[in-house]
Amino acid sequence: MARIMPEQKGNAEEKTEDWIKIELFAPAEMIDALSNFMTEIGSQGAYQESLESQSPNGFPDPSTGETLKAFLPVDVHLEWRIASLQTYLDSLGEIFPELERPTFRTETIRDPDWGMAWKKYFNPLRVSRNIVIKPTWERFTPTGRDIVIEIDPGMAFGTGQHPSTRMCLEAIEEILLNDRSIEKWHVLDVGTGTGILGIACAKLDAKRVLCVDIDKKAVDIAHENILINQVEDRVEILDRDVATLAEPFHMIVANLTAKILIRLRHHLFRLLGDGGYLVISGIVEQNKPDIETHFLSDEFSLRRLITEKEWSCYVLKNEGRRL
């Protein structure tokens, strides 16, 4: 549902001196949706951190959840933004009654320069042996086989900060650098978000990468990132459902939720060529049995299981023995 920003009042050139830091505490399954929502209502610099212990002040931290931090300007829209956030949290609680309800707290930051100072929290991040993610405003000098991907925080889900994204990048790197049986890789990125996984594939010399997402805003963001990273000659972004695709791919990457992965299982298998790899991520510990029941078989063998905290990423291979 579209969220319409209230009409701007006052002097548009007036400098914001105060900022509100929002700390959202939620089950891991909700973090990607919350990250996208905060971006929609105008947050700057949203990022995730895993929760490993109870808060010392007794604030309700879910034991297997995460915290999302975001920054909002104190302006004429702040009241609307906070009210919209509370409404959205209530709706998530109704959609996921079996999960702990998300909560949040706020802190005022009185700093006239915070509009730019928040950027100091985001530095180049090495997410695998050769892949480095950096914001566009940071400098980084690559060495050896480093590839650098420019993605700014606060965009759609997928900036390399989250374990599910990092594990996908690690799996992609290992496959594309080590499997020399395929010369011209054709890769499909399902639910592309920022396009970070597709960009990584292109920079690791995949011949053609198709990124699809049913979220038009994510498609627009991904297209912008493709241009920033100068891989538009090999990466195509489409606002399409994976069910509409027909061509086979050497590798399919899907960083989604377990429920969506299971729902898309038939199409992921259908589109993966013999000898191809399927990388699925975004899976929390309690959903691993369902994923293994639906995805592991004689035709699709488990080549690697990557884990980080409560998150898992599966690397499967189509052994070419389809019934």
Output the CATH topology of the largest domain: Rossmann fold
The stretches of 5 or more residues where confidence is low (pLDDT under 50) are 1-14, 51-63
| Count of β-strands | 14
CATH homologous superfamily of the largest domain - what is it? Answer: Vaccinia Virus protein VP39
Count of DSSP helices? 8
Q: According to CATH, what is the class of the largest domain?
A: Alpha Beta
Q: Percent helix among the residues?
A: 25-40%
Rg, nearest Å: 20 Å
Order of helices and strands: EHEEHEHEEEHEHEHEEHEHEE
Supply the helix-strand structural class: alpha/beta
Separation, N- and C-terminal Cα atoms? 42 Å
* Shape designation: globular
Describe the protein in words:
- The chain has 323 residues and is α/β, with parallel strands linked by helices.
- The chain has two domains: 18-120, Alpha-Beta Plaits (2-Layer Sandwich); 122-318, Vaccinia Virus protein VP39 (Rossmann fold, 3-Layer(aba) Sandwich).
- Helix content is 28%, strand content 29%.
- It contains eight helices and 14 strands.
- The protein has helices spanning 31-40, 78-95, 114-117, 163-178, 196-203, 216-228, 258-271, 288-295; strands spanning 18-27, 44-50, 65-73, 103-110, 125-126, 131-134, 147-150, 186-190, 208-212, 235-238, 249-255, 272-284, 300-308, 311-318.
- The protein has a seven-stranded mixed β-sheet with strand order 10-9-8-11-12-14-13, sandwiched between helices. Strands 2-3-1-4 form a four-stranded antiparallel β-sheet, covered by helices on one side.
- A hairpin with a 2-residue loop joins strand 13 (300-308) and strand 14 (311-318).
- Helix 7 (258-271) packs parallel to helix 8.
- The longest helix has 18 residues, at 78-95.
- Mean pLDDT is 83; it is low at 1-14 and 51-63.
